[in-house]
Design goal:
Distance between the termini: 18 Å
Oligomer: single chain
Number of strands: 6
Order of helices and strands: EEEEHHHEHEHHHH
Strand order of the largest sheet: 4-3-2-1-5-6
Structural class: alpha/beta
Shape: globular
Helix content: 25-40%
Strand content: 5-15%
Largest sheet: 6 strands, parallel
Amino acid sequence: MRDSNIVLIIGSAPNVTEIKDWDLSFFTSCVAINNAWQVTPDWNYLIFPEDFPIDRRPHLPVDTHRQLITANEFVLHQNNFGGFIYAGGTMAFTAGYWALGALKPDIIAYVGCDMVYSAENGKSSHFYGNGTADPLRNDMTLQSLEAKSNRLMALANKQNCAVLNMSSLPESRLTFPRLGNSDFQRSFSHEKLLANQNHLVNQHKVGMALAAEKNLGYLVPSGRYWETIKSFDPVKLRMIDDIWIDTFKQIEFSQFN
């Protein structure tokens, strides 16, 4: 199994601290998003947007094997997969597209990126306390997190890359198949995960969605789509989201456990 190129993407949900008990050497590389580098020292890449505060970034020694991934690196890869307008302007998806383009993985596994924020008293929104729920902001590129999740899984599928969610939370906005870490490391192969994904995907719908994106022609090469956001039509984007929603059969939580 370890012969496969496996990328673990780490977010900041409260349950992400469970990876402290995982054998992260099983993964080819670990990509931390924003503050998630604080969860474990065993990360290889830290990806963050231009407005991520400098005082929250790690101070890396000159001889480190870890890399900081900024807009200088991820915008190009994001554009190669259609750009932020279609992919969704939040770092969980940006990290996925960067990994897909830069690391060429066989498997992308997510943990701590469920984008579910509890409103119950006494519960923190992030592992470090309460933070801003970036994916839930009023942004026309994020009208459907499920559609954007399906899109990433579909484009990964085109590169023979399987995508899964290793979160232990009962609810997630990610649509990827679920698989616990112990089961994943013990028995699952790239071929089996990819076969499951191939069974679920509707390639005709994927083609329709990509054609609709191309016809609409929304691309901002700089990546700063918010600077021209008023020139985009949220209704037309919602129509494309509706196609992406239909590109995968519904996945039950227990299907891959």
